[in-house]
Request: fold
Amino acid sequence: MPDASAPAIPDRPGFATALAYWFRLGCLSFGGPAGQIAMMQHDLVDGRRWIGQRAFLRGLSFATLLPGPEATQLAIYIGWRLHGTAGGIAAGALFVLPGMACMLALSWLAAAHGETGFVGAIFDGLKPVVVAIVGHAVWRIGRKALGGWPPAALAAAAFVAIHLLGVGFPWVVVAAAGIGWLSTLGGRESPFAGGAHGAAVDGDEVPHFAALPPNASRRFAGLSIVFAVLWAIPVGAVLWAMGTRPFLDIADLFTKAAFVTFGGAYAVLPYVADAAVRVYAWLSPAEMLNGLALAETTPGPLILVLQYVGFFAGWNTAASDPLLPAAMGALLASYVTFLPSFFFILAAAPYIEGLHENRAASAALGAITAAVVGVVLNLAVFLGTAVFMGSSGRIDLAAVAVAAVALFALVRFGTAIHWLVFAGAAYGLARWIIGL
Reply:
């Protein structure tokens, strides 16, 4: 039953009507976070008028400031406004579930048949396109976040720390936040504040961070206990039923990732890819590329690529029939990845209307965003090396050319990502047919 804590909304739809919309959105939400947010703006603000423009923007601003997928968190917030806690849970779940189902099927296809025949050829064609997509993300974020030398220097330091020194992504986030906060001491204007106002990964402007009022502490503590239980019981059940390997590592890695994904999926991918490929050896760099390509073609948030990693963790460590461990690994990865998003929104949603500005937190967020440029550049180098050098150790000029054309199409013409993915698949299939 919807709770009474949600504010009254004119023309509020019935609960069943809202459920039907959220499921439809989950099935059609291609195009990444920017496209998904635009769909909600068109449908819910301009069309159905379920939420006002100012309330929509406040929810978007708050969701963008949080770690995790901002479009998913915006859907949770709107669902809460419409039908309270039950509405928020339903909106977030239905927004994600169709993409989860698609990714589960595609993960099986990649694991069982990814190295054979035309399936492998399609993946080969997708890989240089994925490198171009990540390169475009570096350009897009950097253009907004690196206004002046301090943000640029911080981005360079983040790249060196991760790529050359092996510093973990969470520590880079903590250090960047500390630098941003320190830059405001003494009442100074922070050089990182501009990054927090216009440097969201997917092109949405981010206003100042707003802190919760003191009277939220009791409610926050109660919800923290509830969500800790919601994390512990399913994770414990999986460990009891399936054993600890690799499921304890899956729960640990993706829970930590969920709390440091400032900047979206592109920011956390280097952290997850390094752990999954180098530390745990769950999959190869080429398989990681395949997962990112699949995530670009499915509905729902791009961060569903983490479900793919969880699938391969179960598949490649199974002692016998790998399908059940792989499916369990995929579902566990998605569960611990998205659960914090519900916690963040439901804990703070009732207080968004009365939030006040916080200069230090705004500067900290801007510094994190600047560091994310270096983090995503590291991802581009990691993936580019795997694609362009190939197994022979020689540069694959055809792959370089395909990546260059795809990057030009993104930068110059703003070509939709899913069309480039389809073009890359067609290119790979054509090369296989003619025997190249």
About this structure: The beta strands are 210-211, 356-357.
